Amino acid sequence: MAALRLSSRLALVTGGGSGIGRAVCQRFAKEGATVAVVDIDKGAAEETLRTLPSDQQQHVLFVTDVTSPEHVHSLMADIQARFSRPPCVAVNCAGITADRLLLKMESDAFDQVLKVNLKGTFLVTQAVAKALVASGAEKGSIINVGSIVGKVGNVGQANYTASKAGVVALTKTSAKELARFGIRCNTILPGFIDTPMAGKVPQKVLDKVLQLVPMGRLGDPTGGLFM
Ligand code: NAP
Prior knowledge:
Elements: E1 10-14, H1 19-30, E2 34-39, H2 42-51, E3 60-63, H3 69-83, E4 89-92, H4 107-135, E5 140-145, H5 149-152, H6 158-178, E6 183-188, H7 203-210
Parallel strand pairs: 1-2, 1-4, 2-3, 4-5, 5-6
The structure holds NADP nicotinamide-adenine-dinucleotide phosphate (NAP).
NADP nicotinamide-adenine-dinucleotide phosphate (NAP) is lined by residues 14-15, 17-21, 39-41, 44, 64-67, 93-96, 116-117, 120, 145, 147, 190, 192-193, 195-198.
């Protein structure tokens, strides 16, 4: 059997209670990582935790609002108290939508989406990077979840597309600043994936999107690889 690629790694996954974040937690645990499942929704994070294979690893959940600097600070302190080291892999999956056409979008809906998707990603990236640098760790990997619509735009998502374009720029700058500490930063840009978030998209919009997808279906968050 091939060696587990992530054995002895500690990984933090925000938005780990649902959708893509849950699938990442499952895949990481399967690859041997110990996973810190981070989500604002305790019940959802508990559900994820229950699905993780745990032969060797002791996965833990943390209820955290990634928009709060205090929460993110406590999260890092709690993780290091529990594991005596910072996570060497962090995946920023926590995200929300609040779709409305630009002409009708409330300014609060714009702020809230930017706050979770972009500021939350900044706060967690900064906290993980600070902890890695302080610990003298020689390498780390921060993976931010952007979106293809941050590149091409999408009707009804002025706030969401702006936040995801921001995530790309934030990640590029983080990569330039953190490379000298051995920390890699990357963004992935998923298309439409079958999760509770995509479930909020009206069917007529999904039908249009699916016409552009060669497979004619939404992506599977597990990539069809897990279980
Ligand atoms: P999801 O199923 O809705 O999962 C997102 C998780 O993040 C939920 O558990 C959510 O909790 C949590 N969350 C929301 N606000 C938070 C906060 N302030 N602090 C901590 N956790 C918070 O969404 P998903 O589809 O898996 O999306 C995951 C990531 O992929 C997001 O960044 C999304 O923008 C991105 N993405 C998704 C798609 C897609 O088609 N699904 C495509 C491209 C990119 P609540 O449920 O309580 O809000």
